[in-house]
Structure formats: structure tokens, C-alpha cells
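quick one before i forget lol
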Amino acid sequence: MSTPHIESKPEDIAPLVLMPGDPLRAKYIAENFLEDAKLVNEVRNMYGYTGTYKGKRITVFASGMGIPSIGIYSYELYKFYNVEKIIRIGTCGSFHEDIKLLDVILSSGAYCKSYFDELLDGVDIDFIQSSEALNKLILKTAEKDHLNIRYGKTITSDVFDLYCDSEEKFRRCFVDMSFLSVEMEAFGLFYIAKKLGKEASCLMTVVDSLYDKRSLSSEDRETSLNQMIRLALDSIIEEE
């Protein structure tokens, strides 16, 4: 069986999924972290790979950018491929002075002003939590590995924050400064997971900040992203 966007057979997809936005990052993870990785989807070049990590079957499947794209892929993976857990792994921005470039953030939940939930189910939900159980596994794994990660709320925006006309305009939309990060997909993933009775979390590396205008080197980005990828992999294979 396939779906309009996924050509895989049901047995091709593992119940545990890491979901980067970039298809080439999915390829990178498969080639550098999984054993016996097999390409299981390339429809629209949205690559999916299944292999093993420490003896457990894992699928890495790209989501594309934005709520509509991750909404499609997470829904089809949960609904038609019996996926149980998805950890989104990606990048984010921050407008907190104490959040530094390359910090890793775990989202406790996402706030969004999108019409995604109204169009899908006729409801109006501004904030939705991520999986508490899966988050506990991630925090436990991070502590065991002596990794310092930040844990807090996320803003999911339909607009890439660096393209806003001004910092003041963006801040007016999101006046609650308890939000640690801003990105473009988490709300959609968390909403679909809750709708279908599944688990979802989101790990992000900070790559832009209002308080630090440095351009990160490719080596710095790769080192930080690899740390986040390993944390996601080690966490998702843990038993609750």
C-alpha cells in the first residue's frame, strides 16, 4: 500500500521515526548513523530511509518546510504506516538573550496562529503540548550523556522570522517571552500526533538569534547537529 505522497510498503517503515525537514539531512543521517540503510521513499524527492541503530529499526523521513508539509507526512506515517513515535529534528531561531547559538532546545509544546486545526477539524487551538513521555526519555538520555539542553515552549510561525520587517513587529505577535524558540513545523506535528493518539517531540539546534549575528561555520553546525541527532536516536529507542 502507498499513499499520495509515500511510495513505501507498510513493512518498509519502522514504528520509530526521526523527521528532519531537509531531505538531504535525512540522507546524511541514514549514511552516517544507520546500519544497512535502505531508501524507502523518493516521491517528490522527500527521502525516507530505514535501517538499524544499536539493533533497533529506525526510519528517517524528511518533512519539508512548514505546517502543511509536516502535516501531510506525519499524518500518513501515523495513520497508514503504524508509526508510533516521531521526533522532529531541525533548526530554530531564538529571541532570548540567554539562548546561545548552537544550544539544543527540546520543545514542551508549540503555540501557533495558523488555521491548520480549524481547516482540519473545525477547532481553534493556539497551544498544543508535545509528548510528555517521549520528552522524559529525551531529558533522561541527555542527562545520562551529560548534555545540557534547554526545555520550554516553542512558537511555530508561518513566516520565516528573519524575513519579518522588524523585530518589534514580530515581538508584538508573540508577547509571551517564556517561549524559547521559533520554528515552522512543531505545532503541525504535535497536533497530528494528538489527533491520532501517537507520540511526538521536537529537538532543535539554535542557528539564528536576535542577539548574536555571527555566521556559523559549516563545521560548527555539523558538530552541533550531530550531537542532536545522536540524542534523538538514543532517546527514541529507549523503553518507556
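fyi Residues 10-236 form a domain with the Rossmann fold fold (CATH 3.40.50.1580).
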